[in-house]
Structure formats: C-alpha cells, structure tokens
Design a protein that fits this description.
Chain A: This is Iron-regulated ABC transporter membrane component SufB. Chain A: It comes from Bizionia echini. The complex is a heterodimer of chains A (about 475) and B (about 425). Chain A is α/β, with parallel strands linked by helices and about 475 residues long. Helix content of chain A is about 25%, strand content about 35%. In chain A, helix 7 crosses helix 8 and helix 10 packs across helix 11. By secondary structure, chain B is α/β, with parallel strands linked by helices. In chain B, the strands form 2 sheets. Chain B has a 10-stranded mixed beta sheet with strand order 2-1-5-8-10-12-14-16-18-20, covered by helices on one side. In chain B, strands 3, 4, 6, 7, 9, 11, 13, 15, 17 and 19 form a 10-stranded mixed beta sheet that branches. In chain B, helix 2 runs antiparallel to helix 7 and helix 8 packs across helix 9. The N and C termini of chain B lie far apart (about 55 Å). Classes of the chains: A alpha/beta (about 475), B alpha/beta (about 425). Strand 23 of chain A pairs antiparallel with strand 19 of chain B.
Chain lengths: ~475, ~425
C-alpha cells in the first residue's frame, strides 16, 4: 500500500462532500414496508431457513413487540418509524458465482468506487472478502484457502443451511434475543451477515473482512455476525462501513457475537463511516449496534473501533470475561463533527479469576456535535485478582460541541485493582505555535496533533485499516478548525 | 401507612402550627405537591441507582416529636469539638436547646431558622436567599415542605468570624422512630469568612432518619469552610443535601467525614456563578458492617476562570457498600475551567462493594478537566516493610489506611477537628495509636 502523505490529505480535504455518496442502481428485490409476524415469516422463508430458525425469529419478534426503545443514552433524534421501513432487500440477479467475472458489472463498479478492488485485495492485501451489499452476500473469495484449514467463513444464511448445528448451538448465546430493543429487532428480521468458525488450534492465516454498505433507499440494514474461535485458535476480523448519501434517516441495527473458547483469541476491528448527515445535520444513518464477546478460559477478545460516521451512534462492544485468566480489550476512537451524536463505550464484565481488561477510549468532538463515553467495569464477587485499566480522553474543537464521560465502576471483590482516568482538553495554542514556528501550517499541525492523540488506538489496527482510518479521521474533522 | 402518605397527611397538621400567611408558606405548599407527585426516589432513578431507601423507609417515624427533651452537657460533651471556643446551635429531637447552645446577634447572626422565618427584620434575607438554590427533587422538596427549624447564619460584609460555628442535632430516642428535617440557611456576604461544623448524633438504638437541607450563599470574595462529621450509630440514617451558590472570587470548601450511620447519602451541589471561584469537595469514608455511604456530588461551572477540586477516599470493610457519583458540568461559557476529581477506594473485605461513577459533561473547549478513579488494596510490600520492623499487622494496616486518607485531612484548617477525626479513625480501625507521631 502506497504511503499516504500530508499532501494527499490536503487534496482529499478539498472534496468536502461525502465522497462515497453515490447510489448504484442494482435491481433489488424489496419487501413492502412494515413489520409483523408475516413479514418475519416471509424473510425466513425467502432465506430458505429451517423451521427452528423461523421460530427463533418469531420468538424475538414477540419479545420485541413488548419492548420500548431505550432512552437513557445521551443522544437526541427523531425516533424511526419501524412500520415505515422495508425489512428485506436483496440484489436481484443472484445465481451463485464461481468467479468474479460473473458478478453484475455495476456492482463491481461500486466496489471500485469504494476502493475495494477485489482482485487487488486478493493479490496484494491477502484479505478474503465477504462482501455484503444490502444484506446478501454476493461474493466470497479465498473460501478455498480457508477451507483447506477447516475455517468456515460464509454468510450467516448459508451457514444456517450448511452448518445448522454450529449456528443453532451458538446463535443468541452471547446476545440473547431479548437483550435489548435493537438486538430483539435484529434477531427477528436480520437479513444476512457473516459467520466465521475457526477450528481447534488453527491460526487464521489472513485477516477476514467484510464491507457493509447500505445501498437500497429506505432499507434498514440488520446484519448478524457470529464469530466462533474454537479452542486455541486465532482470528483477526475486520469490518468496514461506508454508505451513500441519503436525506432520509437510515437505520442500522446490527448484532455481533464473538465466542472465544479456551485459549482462543479474537481481534475484531471496525472502521465505521456511515453517512453522518450533511453540515446542517440533515440525514445520516442511525447506528444502534449490539456487540458482545464471550471469553472462556485464557481466551482474549480485543475490540478496536474507529467511529467517524453516522448521525447517531449507540454502540458498546463488550466483553464477558467468563473464564479464568481471560483478557478483554477495547480501543476506540470516536470522532463527531457537525451535528453528529455518539454515545459509545464498552462493558467489561469480570466473572472469572485473574481476568484483565483494558479500555482506551479517545473522543474527538468538533462542530456542534456531542460525544459521550459510557462504560461499565463490573467485578463480580468471585472474580479474584481482576484487573482493569481505563483511560478516556476527550479532545474538544470549538465551543459548540460537548464531551461527556459516564463511567460506571462496580467492584464486589477486595482483590480487584481498578484504575480509571479521564481527561478533557483542547489542542493547545502552544502546540500549534510550535508547529507553525517550524513551518507547518495550522491545518497540518492539527492533523498531526489529532493523529498523535489517537496513536495508541490507531496502532492497534491492522496495517490495511490503519491507513484508511487515519484518512477518515482527517476527512471527518475537515473544516472544523479555523 | 406508607411513610409517603403519612408525611403528606402530616403536612396539614403542620399547617395548623405555623403561620400560613407568610410568603414562605407558598414555597412549602408547592414543595409538598412536588413530593406528593414524585414520592421517594427508587433505584430506577439514575441518581439513586446504587442506593435503595427501602430499608429505612419501612419504619413508622413520628414526624413531630411530642415532648421537649433535655440533655446534660456532660453526657454529650464528647460530641462537641469542646476544646475550642465556638458558637453552638444545638437541637434535641428537632427542638432548639437554648441550654446547650451559644448563639449571637452581635455583628453577625447565628441563630434559628424559625425566628428568621417569623421575624420581619430577617425578611429581606429570607426573600432573597431562602429556597433559591435547593433543587426540586423529591427528598429536597420534602424538606422544603416541612422547613421550620434549623440554623440560620448571616455574616454581613467584611467580618471574620472569630470562632467556628457548630451545628449539632441530637436524637434522644424518646420516640420509637424519629424523622428529622432540619433546614439551614447560611449567607456569607462580601469579604467575610466563616467556619462551620455540622454533626448529627443519635443517642439511641431506635431508628432515626434525618433529611437535612443546607443552603449556603458565598458572596463576592467570601470564604466558607464547612465540615461534616458523620459518625452516627448504626440505626441512624442521614440524607444530607447541601447546595452552595458561589459568587465571584469566593472560596468554598466542604469536607465530609463519613464513619457512621446505617445509610448515609450526601448530595453536595456547587454552583459557580461568577469568575475566579474556587470550590473544594473532599471526603473520607471508612465504614464496615452493613453500612452504606453514598456521595453524590455536582460541580456546575457556569462562568470562566474557575477551579474545582474533588478528592474522595473510601475504605470499605465487612458487608458495607460505598457509592460515589461525581459530576462535573462545564457550560460552554465557562472557558479556562480547571476541574479535578479523584476517587480512591480500598476494599478490605470480600463482601464489601463499591460503585463509582465519575462523570464529566463538558461543553467548553478551553478547559482542563480530569478525573481519576481507583479501586485497590493495601500495598503488600509496604505491609511487609512495616511488619518486618515489628509493627503488628493491625497497626500496620491502620497506618497505611491513615496515610491513604491523609490527603483529605491535610486540608482541614481547624487543628482540633483534625485531631478529632484522627481519633475517630483510630477508633474505627480498632487501634490504639496516635497518628500524629
């Protein structure tokens, strides 16, 4: 990957509008709007799912009907009308492809604009892609290489058909159907997503990655991801998001479940760049995501996220440290600009002995945005020698934005050691002066300082993502400093 | 009858014995309505997430004590800071005890809320300051509705009050269960300085619930030092709400020492209405058994160039529970704010628990705000160091715990209070050593 320089950045900053805001006209097979039991059944039927899956969805739907939308988050928005959304949309021309040539050329063009050249990815980046466009997987590459190792990496609807025993055993064990309002909704209507299983003792040789896009106008996107790392295995999973410009609000309610069995390790990285709405705060994606991982003995789950998009973000990737000696990590950068609102953070639930967790959260707010960190560190009475370190730093740009920290710490064990610290500051005038003095102009100086501020988290991202993330950070903050 | 209903119906009885034509009465009537609508807070309220009042609300408290009680000074001397000369405002079962008190009207007013509410000469102050900063939440409204007795302190301009003022509430146990609702108003005018010590003490094993509200106004360049000593017996509970309104260049500090009581809830709210204000909130909590102490603080930075310092230390043994819920709110006009918040806790027992939630809500960009929060144990190597030099385990532990809380003690400006607290800590930790070695 070529080196990204400051000059490239300046070029990029000139394109003010959301650069990925285009719309591909793929003939879609879309359900009429509205949600009821029949729609849930129809989704299930369309996906040719077995009976138990249909029942599972219906159960979730019934629970969801009883629930009310949560209001505790520090965000304000016009609540979506759940009866005004179409719950299923799939690209139409859908024979199974063996090679890329057979794929709808318009779709390939979309990928090209996104900068995801599948061919290039294949050859250079060594990344296998499970590309989700509007909920249905259309291209899965490197399946063979993975297959040789016994790794299962496919869309979740395929997995339901091909590996029902694995899906049935694990689906909903980390995030139960009735976990929360959006998780229940997702469980009822999820259209597709990724499924990944790493067998015992296998180290996945490449970064697994999925690109999500919201493509069809007015279609809610409900992905379901399930990653299972069997004993002693390792996997690094990347997820990146871009979405086209739209004026109406789009809803994204995904559920991600990670299961790390004994001695396994899962590294889950996200770059989220959904359409944040224009500079007047109109439009933008609502991102209500439930992500949770379960660690068995000696297992490790590491969440890394770069959140730059969405009008409203509501996301708390969590770790349940059930097994002894398990480790949970959370590294996050959340950038908000204009009228964006983010309420994000993590939960570390220490249940096992000698469990460790680390939380590094960096929030950058600019424009008129609101950025909140909300976290929970819970040490149960049986979690001897639990250890937690949390650090939440906020950077404010301009005096119309806000930074908020809501950490909850609950300790019930005397041997726990917990440290939490948070700071809020702005970019110091002296720092900028120092740069100016050395011939670095203010805009570049700020990019430099923001990069330094976020370094700890950026370093945790896989190479391919780190560069992209750095770019995103700067694009998101463009025009916010004057 | 539920306590809430009982309180609402007692309000009518209360109206019979007070002047219902005074302007304050409108405030009271409105407050009881607010309480009637809201009721007592439950765990569903975010601010009360970790503190349940259920266990203390079940008693059948008498709201108005039937008879006046007297106490012999010798019996209660130990609850006073008696080795220095002080003004004293003493209440026994909610009634003023002139015998134990020492009030004044010479240059300053150190007297009773009841007389301030009734006498015309205090009217202006009451109109300007009474119930101006107390919030409208349920327990505070309840106190406002029944506000009648408490301390009234007014320090006019340019006065340095020579002696500290002690406010002490005793409960004697003549009632099977007693609820007290003292209401204090403290107004400190320009350039004046005052030190106040507050204590609630139950002398009985009968349950006592105190719902106290204190409003403090620190005007321009005033200095207010407030010390709360909470070492009550374990059948007494306290909900203490303090509201402090600061004007420019004033300094206010509140030190809270929580060692006793069954359930203690401290609501401490600072409002900085002016520039270059300094606010200090410090506390030491050392509890055991099934005690519960909840510190709920708010520092609201409204104008630029102000500072706030918060430092809360807690040591929790047995099955005790500690809660710290600290909030720093910085308005967007409050540029150049420096706000610091620290909360350090030690869990000594496996059954003890601590819930802490240090919050920052910041809307201004040119600020320095930080908070730190730790939960840990005593340092093993420090323990070993002392034990290898012949200091028994218990004493070594006590020394470490004392050192842990010393940051807070070191900023206490009255040496006698420091000594007293040191003694209480030694007693609490069950050791017989003076820490001022």
């Amino acid at each position: 990957m070529s080196k990204y320089t400051e000059d490239d950045l300046r070029e990029e900053l000139k394109t003010k509008e959301y650069e990925y805001g285009f719309y591909t006209d793929i003939k879609s097979d879309t359900f009429p709007i509205g949600l009821n039991e029949d729609v849930v059944r129809a989704i299930s039927k369309r996906k040719e799912e077995p009976e138990w899956m249909t029942e599972w969805r219906l159960e979730a739907f019934r629970v969801w009907q009883e629930m009310v939308e949560p209001e505790w988050a520090n965000v304000h928005y016009q609540k979506p009308d759940f009866q005004a959304i179409s719950y299923y949309s799939a690209p139409n021309s859908k024979p199974k492809y063996d090679s890329l040539d057979e794929v709808d050329p318009e779709l390939l063009e979309t990928f090209k604009k996104l900068g995801i050249s599948i061919d290039e990815q294949k050859k250079l980046a060594n990344v296998a892609m499970d590309v989700v466009v509007d909920s249905v997987s259309v291209a899965t590459t490197f399946k063979k290489t993975l297959g040789e190792k016994g790794i299962i990496f496919m869309s979740i609807s395929e997995a339901i058909k091909e590996h029902p025993e694995l899906v049935r055993k694990h689906l909903g064990t980390v995030v139960p159907q009735k976990d929360n309002f959006y998780a229940a909704l997702n469980s009822a209507v999820f259209s597709d997503g990724s499924f990944c299983y790493i067998p015992k003792g296998v180290r996945c040789p490449m970064e697994l990655s999925t690109y999500f896009r919201i493509n069809q106008a007015g279609t809610g996107q409900f992905e379901r991801t399930l990653v299972i790392a069997d004993e002693g295995s390792y996997v690094s999973y990347l997820e990146g998001c871009t979405a086209p410009s739209r004026d109406e609000n789009q809803l994204h309610a995904a559920v991600v479940e990670l299961i790390a069995l004994d001695d396994a390790e899962i590294k889950y990285s996200t770059v989220q760049n959904w359409y944040p709405g224009n500079s007047e705060g109109k439009g933008g994606v609502f991102n209500f995501v439930t992500k949770r991982g379960l660690c068995e003995k000696n297992a490790k789950i590491s969440w890394t996220q770069v959140e730059t998009g969405s009008a409203v973000t509501w996301k708390y990737p969590s770790c349940v440290l059930k097994g002894d000696n398990s480790v949970g990590e959370f590294y996050s950068i959340a950038v908000t600009n204009n009228f964006q609102q983010a309420d994000t953070g993590t939960k570390m639930i220490h249940l096992g002995k000698n469990t460790k967790s680390t939380i590094i959260s960096k929030g950058i707010s600019a424009g008129k945005s609101q950025n909140s960190y909300r976290g929970l560190v819970q040490i149960s009475s049986r979690a001897d020698n639990a250890r937690n370190f949390s650090q939440c730093d906020s950077l404010l740009m301009g005096n119309e934005c806000g930074a908020h920290t809501f950490p909850y710490i609950e300790a019930k064990n005397k041997s726990a050691i917990i440290e939490h610290e948070a700071t809020t500051s702005k970019i110091g005038e002296d720092q900028i002066f120092y740069c100016n003095q050395r011939g670095i102009d203010t805009e570049k100086a700020i990019a430099l300082i923001v990069n330094g501020f976020s370094k700890e988290v950026l370093n945790k991202l896989p190479m391919e993502f780190a560069v992209e993330a750095q770019k995103l950070l700067e694009i998101s903050l463009e025009g916010s400093v004057g | 009858m539920e306590l809430k209903d009982k309180l609402v119906s007692s309000f009518m009885a209360f109206e019979d014995r007070i002047d219902i034509d005074s302007p304050v009465h409108d405030i009271r009537s409105e407050a009881i309505k607010a309480f009637e609508t809201k009721g007592f807070p439950s765990k569903k309220d975010e601010a009360w997430k970790y503190t349940s009042l259920n266990s203390i609300l079940k008693h059948d408290y008498s709201v108005f004590p039937k008879q006046e009680n007297a106490l012999d000074y010798q019996d209660v001397k130990k609850y006073f800071i008696h080795d220095i000369d002080t003004y004293k405002i003493v209440f026994i079962d909610g009634k003023y005890s002139s015998y134990l008190s020492q009030t004044t009207h010479e240059g300053i007013d150190v007297c009773l809320m009841s007389s301030a509410l009734n006498k015309p000469k205090y009217r202006l102050i009451i109109e300007n300051y009474f119930n101006k900063i107390a919030t409208k939440d349920s327990v505070t409204s309840l106190n406002t509705a029944f506000s009648q007795e408490g301390a009234y302190i007014h320090i006019p301009k340019n006065k340095l009050v020579a002696k500290p003022i002690q406010i002490i509430h005793f409960a004697t146990g003549n009632e099977s269960a007693l609820m007290l609702q003292p209401r204090n108003l403290i107004v400190v005018d320009e350039n004046s300085h005052v030190q106040i010590i507050e204590r609630h003490q139950s002398l009985t094993n009968n349950p006592v619930l105190t719902n106290s509200v204190t409003e403090i106004h620190a005007n321009k360049r005033a200095i207010v030092d407030y010390y709360k000593i909470q070492n009550d017996n374990e059948n007494a509970s306290l909900i203490d709400s303090t509201f402090i309104n600061q004007k420019r260049e004033s300094h206010a500090s509140v030190h809270t020492f929580s060692f006793g009581g069954k359930l203690t809830r401290n609501n401490l709210n600072f409002y900085q209405n002016g520039e270059r204000i300094d606010s200090t909130l410090k506390g030491v909590t050392i509890i055991g058994n099934k005690q519960h102490v909840d510190h709920n603080t708010l520092v609201h930075h409204i104008e630029p160039n102000c500072e706030s310092h918060q430092d809360y230390k807690g040591i929790f043994g047995d099955s005790s529970t500690g809660v710290f819920n600290g909030k720093v709110l910085v308005n967007k006009e409050a540029q150049k704010t420096n706000a610091f918040q620290a909360n350090n806790n030690i869990l000594v027992s496996d059954k003890a628990s601590i819930n802490t939630k240090p919050q920052l809500e910041i809307f201004a960009d040119d600020v320095k705000c930080s908070h730190g929060c730790t939960i840990g144990q005593l340092d093993e190597s420090a323990m070993f160091y002392m034990r290898s030099r012949g200091i028994p385990e218990k004493e070594a532990k006590a020394l470490l715990m004392f050192a842990f809380s010393n940051n807070v003690l070191s900023s206490v400006k009255i040496p006698e209070i420091k000594q007293r607290i040191t003694k209480i800590i030694a007693h609490k930790l069950g050791v017989n050593i003076g820490f001022d070695l």
